[in-house]
Amino acid sequence: MMNWTILQWVLLLASAGQIQSHALRFTILEEQEAGIKIGSLSRNYSAPYQLFDEYIRVDESTGDLFTKKRIDRETLCPSHQDRDCTFSNTAVVSHSEFVLITIVVDDINDNAPIFERDEIHIRIPEDASNGTGFPLDDQAHDKDFANNGLIHYHLEGSDGFFGIRQDGYELELVVQRKLDRETQENHFLVLVAVDGGSVPLSATAILNVTVTDVNDNCPEFDADSPITAIVPGLGIKGTAVAQLKATDKDLGQNAQITFSFSRQISDRAKTLFHMDGNTGLISLAVDVQVDSPEEHVLKVFANSPLCPPAQTQVTIYIQPVTSPEPTIKIRFVAENKNQVIVLQENEPPTVLALLELEDTSSDKGTLSLEADSMPFSLKPKAGSYLLLTSKPLDFEMCSEYDVTVVISDPHGTRLHGRKVIKVVVEDVNDNAPMFDQTHYEKDIKENNIPGVFLLKVQATDADSHQFGKVRYRLTNGGPFIIHEETGVISVAESLDREQQDRYQLTVLARDGGDPSQEGSAIVSINVLDLNDNPPAFSTPHFYFFVSESLPRLSQVGKVTVSDTDEGDNGKIVDVRILNEKVPFAIDLAQGLIRSTGEVDREKQDRYELLVVATDAGRPALSTTVKMTVFVEDVNDNQPKVLLPSSNLSCQTISPATRAGSMITKIYAIDEDSGMNSDITYQIVASEPALHSPFQIDQHSGNITLVQHLRNEDYGMHHLFVVIRDGGKPDPLQTTVWVNLLVNETREKCHVNAVPEYLPATLPPPMPLKDCRGESNAWLVFFLSGLALMLISGCVLLTVVVMIMKHKHTKRKVKKKNAWETGNLCELKPLN
């Protein structure tokens, strides 16, 4: 229907040949409320105005353009992120002209940047040099336009290892410190995207950097190197001689180690011994039988790619084949498994075994322990020996012992042999987990992303296996969770400093013993403030009332504003009125609105103000509220007479004028309002003084002729009229002379001067009549009379009907009797 109306306009004007085309351009910010004025057509064109548009309407009489509803630039122009967003329509003005109206929708920063993924993974080799950049393809997007959609990035939580380099739309993660996978394999960073709005908006994503391994560590032999080994005189091929151990801190292929002999070992050694390049096991390459002792010193290399070989030394003694020597018979007292004594730690000094010397020679031998055999002792007992511990064993100090028993002749001059007894210490759960520090403290900014990494706690247990396996838990976690195996604490939800600014958690580490043991540590978390709360006024709209007689610097009202943030973020640094050239200002120290200039209700009866409060945060936040100041009237304007135009104005009246006719009118105005502008008129003096034939209506100012003009009324009449307003307690007034000439001729009359005298005092105003009361009284009287007439008519009608009905009934009875008696003569026609 709307389009058909526009088409009719076009056809009509086209047929008249009067179509003209012009163009106007207006600008509006997006997301404005409905009813916001955009501009006006009245500056260029005259009324009436017509416009049919989805978003804009026009006032037909004033030409003002207003929004019909909120306009979202991103919805209206989803693909115009790099140019203006406009829409156009045609308005009809002055019944005959078409005006092309183009509306430019300006962008506001109402969209925050958005990352497509909450967590971004990137792999960087540990040998990356400082300054090396790695592209980040997972960038944020912002729907806004120009600076509002321009995104800048920075990192949080990088500890100086990484930085951000941004070149236009290219984004790189830059290495700033030496990386070491063996020290820290994963870095959890926060990538922050901030747009360029005047009040910027931001988004964050977790940046998970995995440091990949390079071959930057070389093999190292274990601390028990160099090794000494003894081979009996009758050795069998394949017998293990020594086991070498070496480690490389790298991963995978970078940690692969191969073992080899140095080329400098003797040919005899090359013949006797075999090296397993993968395991480091040295074994006999041939059967061995020697008659004299041999000593072989072997140099062994541990090799890894791109590394110089690590080396150690292995000394091997080969004992000669001799006549049968004394042997030791072991009778185990303590628990044993496959000739290995098993003893729990922390046991008091305990007998482990009974040793008996079986001597095949004539000379009895003796048994003793090597000097480094602590904490064991050998005690003679009736020709035998008791092997026992000299103190409780501690698994955490040493888990295995090789107790060497030496067989020598009675004089100690000849060594007949050695016997090694292996003792294995079994672990018990005698150690509680211990944290690397008893108190952790960490800062985190509020409004974090849920699930973000916070910190990692570390506890160790000196026990072994299940006894030393630690699991973590929080006793008062609140919004925090801990990974029970890794000790990583993360934040399960977004924190709000205004709700709680500090958390103190208790972390428990429990081992796998039964019963288990626990260790604890305290974690203090400080929630850092962000400027996420704008200043808040006590009400969204302030109303104040002032008198127009208000002196300068008087108090108008008080404005209360607060900010729940802390520090500079919660400090209100500016409260001001945005409107220019208004007679009000804000005293920031006291929050008072004061007058700064003249307030005149007759010039402006109210002030619609916008008040903004700004905090000291970076970036600063602000809030705007409306304030309406109503100016109350005081009686500061006396009535002004517009008609007659002066005291010398004159009007001629014909003697034939009928009584009751209106002769002239006094018209006055008062710029005040209410009772202060309620005007009454009163004739207080006349010339001639007696029997003036003229009367004035105190409300309308109409002057009427109240009686027929007589001969003595001919001539000039001067009426002195007082015009008063209704101000309380002291009304203001003005006066005027009304000059009337009663004369047969219609010539224009002239007055050169008004009477010289004035009344000494002006009479008080006449009591006002309530014309509405009189009107209502006459109306009530009229309606009452009409009601009585209606009631009387109804009663009369009822009586007539009843009489007619009675007559009709009586006639029917008489007719019936006549038929019954046969006397038809009695039937007479009814008149």
TrEMBL record:
<protein>
    <recommendedName>
        <fullName>Protocadherin-20</fullName>
    </recommendedName>
</protein>
<dbReference type="InterPro" id="IPR020894">
    <property type="entry name" value="Cadherin_CS"/>
</dbReference>
<dbReference type="InterPro" id="IPR050174">
    <property type="entry name" value="Protocadherin/Cadherin-CA"/>
</dbReference>
<keyword id="KW-0732">Signal</keyword>
<dbReference type="Pfam" id="PF08266">
    <property type="entry name" value="Cadherin_2"/>
</dbReference>
<feature type="domain" description="Cadherin">
    <location>
        <begin position="24"/>
        <end position="115"/>
    </location>
</feature>
<dbReference type="GO" id="GO:0009653">
    <property type="term" value="P:anatomical structure morphogenesis"/>
</dbReference>
<dbReference type="InterPro" id="IPR015919">
    <property type="entry name" value="Cadherin-like_sf"/>
</dbReference>
<feature type="domain" description="Cadherin">
    <location>
        <begin position="436"/>
        <end position="537"/>
    </location>
</feature>
<keyword id="KW-0472">Membrane</keyword>
<feature type="signal peptide">
    <location>
        <begin position="1"/>
        <end position="21"/>
    </location>
</feature>
<feature type="domain" description="Cadherin">
    <location>
        <begin position="116"/>
        <end position="221"/>
    </location>
</feature>
<keyword id="KW-0130">Cell adhesion</keyword>
<dbReference type="GO" id="GO:0005886">
    <property type="term" value="C:plasma membrane"/>
</dbReference>
<keyword id="KW-0677">Repeat</keyword>
<dbReference type="GO" id="GO:0005509">
    <property type="term" value="F:calcium ion binding"/>
</dbReference>
<keyword id="KW-0812">Transmembrane</keyword>
<keyword id="KW-0325">Glycoprotein</keyword>
<feature type="transmembrane region" description="Helical">
    <location>
        <begin position="777"/>
        <end position="804"/>
    </location>
</feature>
<feature type="domain" description="Cadherin">
    <location>
        <begin position="652"/>
        <end position="757"/>
    </location>
</feature>
<keyword id="KW-1003">Cell membrane</keyword>
<dbReference type="GO" id="GO:0007156">
    <property type="term" value="P:homophilic cell adhesion via plasma membrane adhesion molecules"/>
</dbReference>
<keyword id="KW-1133">Transmembrane helix</keyword>
<keyword id="KW-0106">Calcium</keyword>
<feature type="domain" description="Cadherin">
    <location>
        <begin position="538"/>
        <end position="641"/>
    </location>
</feature>
<feature type="domain" description="Cadherin">
    <location>
        <begin position="238"/>
        <end position="351"/>
    </location>
</feature>
<feature type="domain" description="Cadherin">
    <location>
        <begin position="335"/>
        <end position="435"/>
    </location>
</feature>
<dbReference type="InterPro" id="IPR002126">
    <property type="entry name" value="Cadherin-like_dom"/>
</dbReference>
<dbReference type="InterPro" id="IPR013164">
    <property type="entry name" value="Cadherin_N"/>
</dbReference>
<dbReference type="Pfam" id="PF00028">
    <property type="entry name" value="Cadherin"/>
</dbReference>
